[in-house]
Fold:
Amino acid sequence: MKAFRGTLIATLALLVVVLVVFLVDRGRRETEVQESPALFQFEKADVVRVEIVRPDSTLVLAEQPDGQWIVEGPGWPAARSMVNRVKHQIHDLTARATVVEAPEAPELYGLGANAVHVTLLLRDDRKLEFLAGDPNPSNVSYYMQPLPGDTIYTVKKSAMDYYSLEPDAFRERRFASHDATDADRLEADLPGGRRLVLQRESDLVWRMEEPLEMLASREEVRRLLGRVTALKVDTFVEDHPSDLGRYGLDPPRARIRILFASREPIDLSIGAVAHTDDRFHKTRSYAYMMLANDFTVYTASDDLLEDYLGDPAAMRLKRFVRMRTGEVTDVTVDLQPGPGEDLSGVVTLLYRADKWLWADGVPVAGSTPSRVALRAAEIEADEIAAEQVGNPARWGFDRPHVTIRLRDREGTVRVLVVGGAAPPAQDPEGRDRTRSYARVDDLPTVWIVDDGVVDVAEDLVREYQRKAGADAASEERLDRVEEALGPRFPGPRTDPGSTQPPGTDP
Structure:
């Protein structure tokens, strides 16, 4: 009997413990449901305003008439990544689970006085509101409560975890972003009194005006422009500074101006070095910077100045034909025999209706026409041999090995001339790589190019000669048949090169 009484007491004690645990934890337990309710549905582009009300502050992100977003109040440019994050995470938000429909203690979920109240204003004046709470015990979901309403749900962590970030997290850190393809001019006043000026002449060509006068590589200019657009704020230092001198910005250590065809210029001043660190396994310095049309002093890495202070001659144009392969419509290759060779010929290609044709309209099989157009239109020089041709015979231009005439869709014509052999270069395996002197008809410079363009020209001539041989053999067979059986068609044959209509006397 005593044993039974002890068992009964133990059982009752266990039931009391289970009941206490249940009562304490019931506010935190999630109700398992089979469905995932859809909470919000709208188009991302419809969001025009985001209000984030926290217990200690209010943050408002607002779209401007020009499509840009700002943080209202201080007027900071809003981080595009954060604006897009709000739109992306909320526009089709679905609950992971329904937790409780009428909570007695919403503060257990972080949805009491310390909740973050978020309001989205849409373009059609609709308002969507919700409270963002705490993470759930597993820390993979967050509690949230749509308003109006009392039901609490869990949603994915990435939909809620950023509303409690510091205000600086909502500021745009890429402060000098631009589209390099829209840039028209680049001017840089650099340390040591150096100056760099580049002017765009066309989509493919830039001209350096200072410190050298020469055509500049589009790729090199875009690299310099890209260094500016990649600048990222390390620290936000001061808004509306009263003394720029304390940051080395009056006057600045360097100044970079980028002018555009369709927007206001970027005018970047780079001041004194603020600090250095080795976070990236190399010493990197961070300087004070400010844009002319901005009111904030930033710090950002100033290693872009290394590129701007590089050897200006290294920016020289090397894709000197200045055409795009996809724009070429007509190609004529004139190949003359090289030393100890007998291969020669003149071949014309036409690009019509998305296919390459021989001059007689017969489609060309294989990739050789595309390879010829690519090698010729986008040929890149290894180095510069001379600024001026001078005596053409010195480079073999008096009797060129290959002459390639290109026409593009706009009617622009360029003639690439490949002359005599240039000193060979070595490939990574240490083997000699043959090269030739080359020029283009509208520029005086002599370049040294890889002989790949000669190789594809020879391939084209061989293919054409095989076609011509096959055509001749076919014509010969037809002649023999006609001699044996008579003409295949009534009336006299017309010579392929004649303009005389069939059935008429010459």
User: Anything to note?
Assistant: The radius of gyration is 37 Å.
